[in-house]
Amino acid sequence: MNWRKETENARNRTCVKALFLSRGRVQALVHDFNHMAERLESLVGAQQLLLRDVSHELRSPLARLNVALELAREDTDPDTEIETHLGRIEREPRDSAS
Questions:
Q1: Which domain holds residue 62?
Q2: Total domain count for the chain?
């Protein structure tokens, strides 16, 4: 997934600005609307960045856990109680995500 392209698409969808000028109350409303649109654009971008970072932070430990489990299985007999525990450790993250 191209995060930069997705972010740009989100900006195009969320940032709808009033492009006309007027006087008095309408001008103040246009200013406030544009400020709100910019703020929303900023918040959506920050949310996407946070989601990307959290996703990465969760995948890294899970990948290390899977490697450790594979290495532990290489040194154990499949019929032992240790293999039963390793299987339980392997299933736990998947069961927690469901």
A1: 3-97
A2: 1
